[in-house]
Amino acid sequence: MVGLFLTPTGMPCQRRINAAMLMLVTIWGLNFPIVKGAFAELPPFAFNGLRFAGAAVLLLAALRRLEGPQRIPPSDLPGLALLGLLGHAGYQTLFMAGLARTTAGHSSLILALVPLFVGVLGVAVGLERPSPRMWAGLVIALGGVIALVAGSGGLSIEGGSVGGDLLTLAASLCWAAYTVLSRPYLRKMSALRLTTVTLILGLPVILASAIPGLLRVDWPAVSLRAWAALSFSAVFAVVISYVIWYTSVQAFGSARTAAFSYLIPVVALISAWALLGEPLGALQVLGGSVVLFGVWIARREVIADVRR
User: How many domains does the chain have?
Assistant: First the structure.
């Protein structure tokens, strides 16, 4: 699977990985309305537990077929377990809990801070040295996201959303740390293996949080549409997207990969306009254009990898 992103000489193909990242952005942008529609039949944590259990089975089967068994050094297990808790259990649990307590506009804006968090953490742990041009691209794209959210009426001050905002902020930090701290392990194993191992290690926490919701589900009443949403989210939003994300981190670094996160609100906005008939204003179009420009700058810039 990862071989699809390599040139005949075995080097990462930037065009292929960029195309894959654009597919990831599209999947994650569409995933929100698709998943949200299933929540009426499957509680959020129950839905999350089912999709990650299914994703774990698919990843294990793919890993066994494509790469076979490989012994993991015991010294790596604590760090891999931490990645599993941060990127799978922590991020997903905090995001679900935060989204239930805040507005979509607040959530989109807070999650858009991930690329900046990744850049700061990368410098703090000595893994990357983003250039001034890279920082400029990230800040420009963040400004575009703010305009995007403001244009949709998603910016407001609501005291009742503070708790959800804080949970979403914690989720953003978990994803940023998960992205940055994966770099040393991606020098030892493939993106597919790292995704599989960390998901398996984080799965017990996800399943534990899902049990109360699973016990309340009226299983005979669950529609085919809800099962289709679950399948889409497990296969595309988790299995395929996580492997693509790690492949990009492995090839081009954390900050350049995270810059693509800014495009997710753009895709969500266009999807809502095309599929749901939601209005698309001039400020939103301008914000989306600024995001694209900022991501182009950030992704184009070469970053010095301190430990490569």
Answer: 1
Coarse DSSP helix, strand, coil percentages of the chain, rounded to the nearest 5 percent: 80, 0, 20
Of 11 and 239, the structure prediction assigns the larger pLDDT to 239
Query: Which tokens in the block code for residue 89?
Result: 């259990």
Residue 88 lies in a domain: yes
| CA gap 123, 285 in Å, rounded | 33
6 DSSP β-pair partners: 12
Is 14 within a domain? no
Q: Which of 269, 264, 39 is nearest to 152 (CA)?
A: 269
pLDDT class of 307 with cuts at 50, 70, 90: very low
Residue 206 within a domain: yes
Type of residue found at 96: M
Distance CA(249)–CA(179), nearest Å, equals 7
- For 276, the domain range is 24-305
Q: Is 8 within the bounds of a domain?
A: no
Q: Is the dihedral of CA 233, 193, 246, 109 positive or negative?
A: positive
* CB within 8 Å of 291: residues ≥ 6 apart: 141, 144, 145, 148, 262, 263, 265, 266
Note the pLDDT tens digit of each residue in 285-301: 677 677 667 766 765 65
Residue 224 pLDDT greater than 90, yes or no:
yes
Positive or negative CA dihedral for 253, 255, 256, 259?
Answer: positive
pTM of the model: 0.79
Query: Contact 250/300 with Cβ under 8 angstroms?
Result: no
> CA-based angle 293:299:302, to the nearest 5?
130
- What lies within 8 Å, CB to CB, of 226 at 6+ separation is 37, 38, 41, 42
1, two tokens: 């699977």
Kindly state the average pLDDT of the residues 269-293: 68
